[in-house]
Amino acid sequence: MTKSKPESQAIEPEVNLDLAKSHGLLEEEYEKVLEILGRTPTYTELGIFSVMWSEHCSYKNSIALLKQLPRSGKRLLADAGEENAGLVDIGDGLAVAFKIESHNHPSAVEPYQGAATGVGGIQRDIFTMGARPIASLNSLRFGPLTLPRVRYLLQGVVRGIGDYGNAFGVPTVAGEVYFDPCYTGNPLVNAMSVGLVEHGKVARAVAKGEGNRVMIVGSSTGRDGIHGATFASEEISEKSEAKRPSVQVGDPFTEKLLLEATLEAIATGFVVGIQDMGAAGLTCSCSEMSAKGIEQSGGGEVNGVATGSGMEIDLDLVPVRENGMTAYEIMLSESQERMLIVAQKGREGALLEIFKKWELEAVVIGAVTTDGFVRVRHHGKIVAEVPAVPLVLGGGAPVYIREAVEKKPDVKFPVLAPDDEIDFEKEILDLLGAPNIASKRWVYEQYDSMVRTNSLTLAGATDAALIGIKGTAKALAMKTDCNARYVYLNPRKGGMIAVAECARNIACTGAKPLGVTNCLNFGNPYKPEIYFQFREAVLGMGEACRKFDTPITGGNVSFYNESKSGDEVTAVYPTPVIGMIGLLDDAALAVRSTFKHEGDAILLIGLQLETPDSEGLTGSEYLVRRYGELGLDAPAFDLDAEKRLQDLLQLLAAKKYLRSAHDCSDGGLVTALAECSVMDETLQL
Amino acid sequence: MAYRAKIKITLRPSILDTQGKAVHHALESLNYQSVAGVRIGKYIELEVAESDESTASRITDEACKKLLANPVMEDYSFELEQIGQAN
Amino acid sequence: MAYRAKIKITLRPSILDTQGKAVHHALESLNYQSVAGVRIGKYIELEVAESDESTASRITDEACKKLLANPVMEDYSFELEQIGQAN
Amino acid sequence: MSKIKFGIVVFPGSNCDHDGEVVCNALPDAEARLIWHRESDLQQSDVILLPGGFSYGDYLRTGAIAKFSPAMTEVVRFAGQGGLVLGICNGFQILQESGLLEGAMMRNINRKFICKFVSLKVANNNTLFTSGYGKDEVIRIPIAHGDGNFTADAETLRQLQENNQVVFRYCDHTGDESSEANPNGSLYNIAGIINRRGNVLGLMPHPERACDALLGSTDGQKLFESLVRNVVAERL
Asked: Could you say which architecture CATH assigns to the domain D4-235?
């Protein structure tokens, strides 16, 4: 431990338990900070611990359960959680990086920028691994369209996703949009990206090699994205500047330059490690890359501090966009389109040239050390000196198992009108016109789904998006899916069905499901009934992933999705969104969704479960729309039968027996039949 | 009698102006080195068919708050100018 | 010494302003019936680090002609305001 | 006989350069090379292609900033000497901003980005770019833009019609140039025009995205084939 204690900067508030609590730290967590440092933290150090131990970065209330999900598989290059995005081997020397993440709360504040920066962030998670993004998907949930505020949010989110993805030059090829009152105050905006990388060219998020240069590249740093709650600067800074913005602004143009420059830099072989700056910006990338380096060094320990790697950086060198930024602000800023790179000592010049060519900021701000610390200087003084390992997930960050208590949702199954009283034609047309069922062309036509000329779905609708891989006969199938009503009615079965439906959509194209990423959108984990939903859904997902041999390669957890009306707080339905990829060895054998020739036989394939007919309606869109009731449980479901069905679909496709195949899900059989009849690009309706 | 409201809508100083950044860069490459900063916003003209200025001002202010300016990221200001008949 | 150029870029009257029409329609649906017309353009602020006004004015005019305004369909006008140091 | 050389200019923010390169390289006697916008050497290209994308993020106006790149100064000179230039989507907007083609593009009339297949009528098949198509042939080509609403003053419009410079028009699958078939509000359903001299063509739809049956249409192929055939013929 160096002798001089890091100095607090003159105008910072006095660090104590109250300030720690206002930063979201619990009392026992603050005690642990004092124990780790052996002294009171400086204001900047408190900021660092508060973001690193926030739910978003540490997964403290979910990691214990997530560990039970199947995370390894023979096709996986990097085990889940070790890299930003899981990598799946697809042959031809190629691997697929894919991940899904949520940007729910920023989108509720500013829909356009919230959604745009969500898309930007997930693309960086992919190209930070050296992979070129080849497709984007999304999963959106809003309140009912009858509300003006919901229409405002929907329009802003869709335009944000489109503008960012279109300008960045990645096709947006699939997604889902659901409308339900439970999302009124808290929309869900989940963005997914899929990228390709050659096996040898994968980049790692690690800081190692003493003396190697630490560089910050991309946009300059401003005060955007520093969360109000953990930011108490109004009192301390006399300047009456506009209130600190919590809105992060995305710049797809700079991101496209950052993509090309990053891939070019990685190709030189001089990049030792690289990580994008997402939540908690510089703080998160410095600590996670250092902790990874320490873990890989298998190094020793000095005075209880794990050594072998670490970082020393000087904030005076960080390119800033606003003057007078404090160390706290620079370390916590979430300005977009920035990466942290560890460059081989002596080779940083070549990398700086590349970023200069692409007209991007690129500055060496420090070097790799071996003492196990993240040491931060500002205005010549040490403002933070924190051991890296205790900061990070899997290192010293807290892990909690919360209390889980089932609270049956108060739902019922309505008395159904007798058939002879029903005008079936009117009911069917009404169902087909329901927002959750009707075509979403008015949304996805705002996305460029064709750039990079690999989108095979344009020659005719398919149940999962199909992206051809140039230079091979192969195509990737990809889909996002989740029926949150089923999870609300029965979290375990609902979690299983979410994975099964995604896999079924992929199998309908003839492709073989390979791997899963997930975005778990839930309420407040400190409420036992919410934690029960979370635990059961995760267990259900795990069971299904094991059955389909689709390991989970990583993902994201978003808690506290709830809306307040008056003092009444209602959580959103438990929404574990599944993002899945599959492989089609021969793209020419792709099976599309729509009927092709008059006279072809129509088959309904699946297990005929012996439940009374009416129970098949439970949890259905029809029951909710026609009777305003959810029913009592998720529909009957058999995991074995589902696996056999999907294996059959792939077999029939390979033998060219199938003219088309379409999943029977929301809206039931009648909707599936209608979709098979009309859903085709060439039909100019 | 009518008024023309001349409204300026600008990004708050602390919000990153990506467009301004790109245009500033372009002006530099046209070697207008003395241009030290560029910020880009919207200019909106409303024709308000009201006889007295205070009503016209109230309507303009409400229009800005409710629709024209995004309160999360933008500030607005306006002047009123008397014109003949609103066409 | 520096100047701030406040530039207004507007669509030529002969050009159909589809954005303006849409905003006008939205204001009507918020029952601001007395709003008779809406036109939408750009408001650009340049900070020009020049000591005398005529140079600052020339630079601003050239920037508008070469880049900021599209001669095919836009008109521009600007005022200059003296400010301390351009940051 | 050496191959016909397509020079594809890449601006920061272009994203369809790659797609154009693949299509040109696939043509039997043609090859493509990428030209970074900072270079002023067009590498003896026979045809210059300005690709789709969001040059400079389309900030201020689509194509407004790209026109100042060194490569564009060369392209203007190349076009002045009769060189063939094809501008697709953002490329067309850059040609308008650089004064090589008439008119300007405004925001789509529904103020939203639109990406879908549309039908186009080949109004003028008597050009070096469209000689492979039949007169008034209806073809299916995708569009993907937010600012494709073609506008020009009355006099320019009159001249464009008179000199047969309108090459592509939006229509329905029967060839009717109805207002319903107009996706973005362009005057006279104009989707693509050529300059008076006949060596610079700009169009908003993306022919490079319609050269593969697996992608839904091959109607874009004939545009590239016409160019190669006419350049070869000119050399003989």
From this structure: 3-Layer(aba) Sandwich (3.40)
Question: Phi, psi (5° rounding) for residue A311?
Answer: -145, 145
pLDDT reading at A265 higher than 50: yes
Contact in structure between B87 and C36 (CB atoms under 8 Å): yes
Which pTM was predicted? 0.91
Q: Taking 50 as the threshold, does the pLDDT of residue A569 lie above it? A: yes
Burial of A218 (0-12, 13-18, 19+ CB in 10 A): buried
The span from the first CA to the last CA of chain A, in angstroms, equals 72
Q: Catalytic positions of D, please? A: 89, 206, 208
Average pLDDT over residues C32-48: 95
Tell me the one-letter amino acid at A274: I
Amino acid at D35: I
Instruction: Give the model's confidence band at D97: pLDDT under 50 very low, under 70 low, under 90 confident, else very high.
Output: very high
Q: Cα separation of A95 and D132, whole Å? A: 41
Measured CA to CA in angstroms, residue A639 lies from A437, A593, A608, A644, D150 at distances of: 25, 23, 13, 9, 55
d(CA D226, CA A635): 58
pLDDT of residue A237: 36
Structure confidence by residue, pLDDT tens digits, B21-31: 999 999 998 99
Closest by CA position to A57, among listed A208, A304, A216, A227: A227
Pairing verdict, β A338-343 and A271-276: antiparallel
Query: With contacts defined as CB-CB under 8 Å, which chain C residues touch B65?
Result: none
Q: Strands A305-306 and A552-558, how do they pair?
A: unpaired
Whether residue D64 and residue C67 make contact (CB cut-off 8 A), yes or no, is yes
Task: State how beta strands A575-584 and D104-106 pair.
Answer: unpaired
Residue pair A521/A50 in contact (Cβ under 8 Å)? The answer is no
Residue among D121, D125, D126, D123 nearest D141 (CA): D121
pLDDT in tens, A197-227: 998 889 999 999 999 999 999 999 988 777 6
Contacts of C12 in chain B (CB under 8 A): none
CB B20 within 8 A of CB B37: yes
Closest partner CB to D65 (pick from B18, B22, B40): B22
Architecture of C2-84 per CATH? 2-Layer Sandwich (3.30)
End-to-end CA distance of chain C: 11
Bridge-partner residues for A465, per DSSP? Answer: A478
With vertex at residue A571, the alpha carbon angle to CA A565 and CA A576, rounded to the nearest 5 degrees, is 150
User: Of D223, D145, D217, whose CA–CA distance to D185 is shortest?
Assistant: D145
Active-site entry in A56, A227, A378, A662: A56
Q: What is the pLDDT of residue A581?
A: 96
| Amino acid type, D234 | E
According to DSSP, the β-strands at D4-10 and D47-50 are parallel
| Run of H or E residues at D96 | helix D90-97
pLDDT-derived band of residue A10, with 50, 70 and 90 as boundaries? low
CB D195 within 8 A of CB D185: no
Nearest-angstrom CA–CA distance, A497 and A487: 8
Q: Which of residues 23-42 of C touch B (CB under 8 A)?
A: 23, 26-27, 30, 32, 34-42
Mutate to test the interface with D, among B23, B32, B35 (most CBs of D within 10 A): B23
Q: Rounded to whole angstroms, how far apart are CA atoms A114 and A393?
A: 25
Q: Name the residue among A465, A383, A457 with its Cα closest to residue A192.
A: A465
Locate the domains of chain D by residue range: 4-235
| pLDDT tens digits, one per residue of D123-158 | 999 999 999 999 999 999 999 999 999 999 899 999
pLDDT in the model for residue A238 = 34
Cα Rg for chain A, rounded, in angstroms?
25
Q: What is the ipTM of this complex?
A: 0.88
Name the residue of chain A whose CA is nearest to D116's CA.
A445
